[in-house]
Amino acid sequence: MLKQLTTTIALLVCTLSLSQSLTSNQIKQLISSYKSDVRGPYQRIKWFCDDGTEREPKDPCPDKIGGVQHAKYKESLIQLREQNHLFFGDILAAEDQDQFLDKANFYNHLKQYQINKYLYSVDNGWVLRKAQYYRGAFQSEDEEAWGKSFFLDILKDDNFVTSQYYLIRQALKDIPHNGDNNIAQLMRSQSKILSEDLQDFMSLRIKIHGQPDANDIELVKAYFNKNQSKLSLKQKQQFEELIQTMQTFYAPLDFDALINDIKQIDTKNSTYLSIVAFLNQDKNETNVAHLVQDLSNLLYTIRTNILDFKSSEDRLLLLDLTNQLEKTLLIESQNYTTTTLHDNILKINTLACAATGTGLIEHWEYNAIENRLNTPLLEDQLTLNTLNEYLIASRSLVEWSSAMPKAVYNTIIETYTDFEPLAHGFIDDKVRSSIALNLGETVSNLGVFIAKESKIKNDIENLSNSSSVRGLNPGYAKGTLVVVDGNPDKVEVNTNNIYIFERPPSDLKPVAGIFTVSEGNLVSHVQLLARNLGIPNAALSYDNLKELKQLDGQTVFYAVSNKGNVILKKENQMTSQESSLFTAQQQNKNVIEVPTNQIRLDIDNVVNMRDVNATDSGKLCGPKAANLGELKAQFPDHVVEGLIIPFGIFKAHMLQEMNTSTGQTYWDYLNSIFAKAKSMREDNIDETTIENMQLDAFKTLREAIVNMPLKPEFINDIKRQFKVAFKSNLGQVPVFLRSDTNMEDLKEFTGAGLNLTLFNILDEDEILKGIKRVWASPYTERSFKWRQKYLSNPENVYPSILIIPSVDVDYSGVMITKGINQGTDKDLTVAFSLGAGGAVDGQSAETRLITNQTDYLLAPARQLQFIRLPKTGGVKTYATSFNAPILNQKNIDQINKLANSIRKHMGTDQAYDVEFGFKDNNLWLFQIRPFVENKTAKSSEYLQSISPKIDLNQTISLQTTL
Question: What is 595-660 written as a DSSP string?
């Protein structure tokens, strides 16, 4: 197995029986019933003996047998566990430790326990609202004993400790095992509950959540004293509890107690000595900067060397210590102020070390960026260009750190938010309880300084700090702003709206403009389409997203310049120049006509991919097949065999009768849709009505194509050709069916990802049905809406189909033969994910800028699940950790070699978009197409006018005051 996969936990995610699963509404009702029940999700109290028997509360287990007393789960809760794999109100003493860890479902049960803990704190006990007072439901000493036993068991596994370091440390905060609790989460939830009843307390709540420090205690006390007369008895009690929690949280680190704890460690190695030295020396440290640096270094050292401690008892002591150190680090980093550019950069580097030490960043990720962080501190002064490069690197650290909690928990959070929307706040709570919060603030301060020096200024209404917003793709738009805080896949988008997403949906329909918290990756189909069509696209922080909710539903103007600065303002704030951009004349698009003068519709037999080359694109078949045929000739050992169903076969089937009573063919019906649209436009009917008519008609056409009969001579032909090309009968080799139309990869239009690709189909009937599904896919709403923006003759879109055997690649992705956003036209932008179909659907992929000298990690993968392609057909879903890179040096060398060959054979006047993968370190090519950018957006006079003129050679002393 490949080196990078040996450190990856690849686990098949169990599939639950959906036929018996409870619906979201049923689960909501169940939660509501538990909240109102004094016993919550529990049935009654019983003794559970070690021999498997149960006894009544007054009849304890005999001493020679042993046992514990706790509540028994209700049947409805047991049913929910069995049918939906959902776990509420866990009593740890009742749980099997292996089932609780839930390794087969990538620690799903363990993560749900943590989510439950969060929901208890923010929703007055949640399912235990009244059961919190159900005496005997669980015993704290039994829960703690179980928790300690659980951790001592799982910490024996070296691979688990290294691959799941972040998850383990978070679990230690939530699972009782040493009289501990998650005090930071409690502080935030108590302030949140008070702010819901007291609107004028909201500003303090925001401070506690966003920029907490010890002074907050006095601020809360002052508010309490001033408003006591207006508070209810319950609210007074809540304030007293909050103040007590804050005093506990901000209490100084008890160095003497920690020294006594650490003496219990058996292994007295160099790491142990470093801990002892810190505890003895830093207990009197008054220099905050030094203390934060020492804390960060110690956290990093413990994580780096934890496997040197062989006993799980030692590891548990160390990990508990790291959580106590982190709590102090969070407090002191807020007190760590910087006044000069040098101090600011030093603090960023210090917190980057802390982020690695606490598990937010993996070791290999930190090593990949460490030189870019440290180099500026070796100089007395820096150019603006070097500072900008440093800012890009440090912003990356913030994004990687903030993305770790989401990557680890998001799959189960999305399940929970279907029936409990409050669960959505869990990930934000994890980010705010980490060093990512202060790291983000420190990097933001640097961004403000550099923007001021560069004269770059984002002009974004209602945003208190816009320095973290950066443009990804130039363009401008006007439309209704829609802020989507949560899963974007369930949002029905409107072409005329501007959207702010937490992450871009993989099948986004065309929109006027996009902001995203997580940009996915630079080479996903959505990003390429946005780049192609000049759709303004920018990245922002999650805090920015929440602030911009104030503009939700309002008409705004949005622009991203060629230099990446961003404008967002209300419609009534637009200048006359900006308003003039949206006159009828200015809105006219560069309409493209799909060339059909050379199309070969007379060829109605299946073609071997070896018999085509790039010159056949748009004539016999689409560019996927034609270019892959070209690549097969150039790289015979790196391209699979393939078959092509040319345009002519599609057209021949479309000339069959669709309606036998009228004799109308499928082709007649298709053309009638466009003829009717033309007639409606001549009658001045609005475009929305016309579009709705077309979409309804396309739905009818798609269903008809999927059910059309295939010609017997075609079926015989494909069976014969399949055996020749793949040396097996149809139905014995799993294949991909890839739509390949004549509207793709035109000079002005890419069409990336608009039509259907079917993965790893084995069954003969499914392959034949799949052919018709692919033929129907150009008439989906998404495909039609994207292409109608550019095409004057969309009725002349012809799909061919490329059939290639599946390669169960270890990892796959996309290469653009130029730098995107960073780098030059001589560089490569590469994005890869584990398994098949990597990077194209917007996965959080490992993204690199590869140059002639080296490669830069732009982003690590943060995608928990991936798919593999079994020989039996279909896909299997697996999960991974993030503690090793996907690409290795041999892969990067192969990528460079491939790019050089492509440029040599296909020319350097055009950049290319290449899809490929690696199986056992061998490269397999799957697709190549021209990389298309929107030249109009880049050259727009308006966008040029808002782009600042920057002297990148300007030098700045590191002693400059911020």
Answer: P-TT---S--S-EEGGG--GGGBTTTB-HHHHHHHHHHHH-TTTB---EEE-HHHHHHHHTSEEET
